[in-house]
TrEMBL record:
Transmembrane residue ranges: none
Compositionally biased tracts (Basic and acidic residues): 96-124
Provenance organism: Sapajus apella (Brown-capped capuchin)
Top-level taxon: Eukaryota
GO molecular function: GTP binding
Entry keyword tRNA-binding: no
Parent-protein residues present: 72 to 324 of 362
Gene this protein is translated from: SEPTIN12
Family of the protein in this entry: Belongs to the TRAFAC class TrmE-Era-EngA-EngB-Septin-like GTPase superfamily. Septin GTPase family.
Skewed-composition ranges (Low complexity): 125-136
Protein name from the UniProt record: Septin-12 isoform X4
Length: 253
């Protein structure tokens, strides 16, 4: 039988294998038409996580007429993450929303706290919130409305937050800083010789990745990087448990 050192070595191998295979993470954005959802999805995919291979820079955002999913495989510190972001037409728009799938588990989750999911299907891992969720107002992620000032965004109406993302964990450090003032931008601009994603206003260029300008980097880290850490932890725990059970069974044969 393997001693503790042997177990650690096998566990590390399993972990490395799982990391190489990668993870899947699905996000869906919902909200009124014109909030900036599609722009925010594009910003997420064009921001520096994807710098090595920015998809379709400079393409203007058309109005979203149906559910539209974009998938990219990103790699962060050697871990592959298949990220699918589903953009949706605005609720209340006279547009076909037929493709909404309702899973019984999602309905259950809507009634309770949203839970992180790791599945190989296309299920949305942040379940859609079809309306203001009790207790989530403090955790609302707010987009700066078109023409708004990122430093002084208007307070959301308590019953109608302009944009709502349910977040995975209540313990994450960034949650203390919610609501984030985020700016979405499809365009790149030249600033001091650097190419930056930003929104040109009459006061200057608001750079989406500049924390002095807006909190988009916090939102991205919360959605992607911290989730990746959760997935790493889950892998470690699950594989360790599985391995332990197998070894215990074998040792009793
Ligand atoms: P959607 O209907 O929610 O998908 O909204 P869009 O992404 O199509 O954006 C609607 C309009 O708002 C477009 O003209 C965008 O350029 C603009 N917009 C998007 N994000 C921002 C933002 O952060 N700030 C400002 N000022 N305008 C934005
Ligand atoms: Mg749209």
């Amino acid at each position: 039988m393997l001693g503790p050192v042997g177990i650690e070595a096998v566990l590390d191998q399993l972990k490395i294998k799982a990391m190489k295979m990668g993870f899947e993470f699905n996000i869906m954005v919902v909200g009124q038409s014109g909030l900036g959802k599609s722009t925010m999805v594009n910003t997420l995919f064009k921001s520096k996580v994807w710098k090595s291979n920015p998809p379709g820079l400079g393409v203007p955002t058309p109005q979203t007429l149906q559910l539209h999913s974009v998938t990219h495989v990103i790699e962060e510190k050697g871990v592959k993450l298949k990220l699918t972001v589903t953009d949706t037409p605005g609720f209340g728009d006279q547009i076909n929303n037929d493709k909404w799938e309702d899973h019984p588990e999602d309905a259950a989750e809507r009634d309770g706290a949203p839970r992180a999911q790791h599945t190989s299907e296309g299920r949305v891992h942040l379940p859609p919130q079809l309306g203001p969720h009790p207790g989530l107002h403090q955790r609302a992620v707010r987009a700066v409305p078109a023409g708004g000032d990122p430093h002084h965004p208007p307070a959301p109406h308590p019953r109608h937050p302009r944009a709502l993302l349910c977040v995975l964990r209540t313990t994450h450090w960034a949650l203390d800083r919610i609501p984030f003032a985020v700016v979405g931008a499809d365009r790149e601009h030249l600033v001091d010789g650097r190419c930056v994603l930003g929104r040109k206003t009459k006061w200057g260029i608001i750079e989406v990745e500049n924390m002095a300008h807006c909190e988009f980097p916090l939102l991205r880290d919360l959605l992607i990087r911290s989730h990746l850490q959760d997935l790493k932890d889950i892998t470690h725990n699950v594989h360790y448990e599985n391995y332990r059970v197998i070894r215990l069974n074998e040792s009793h044969l």
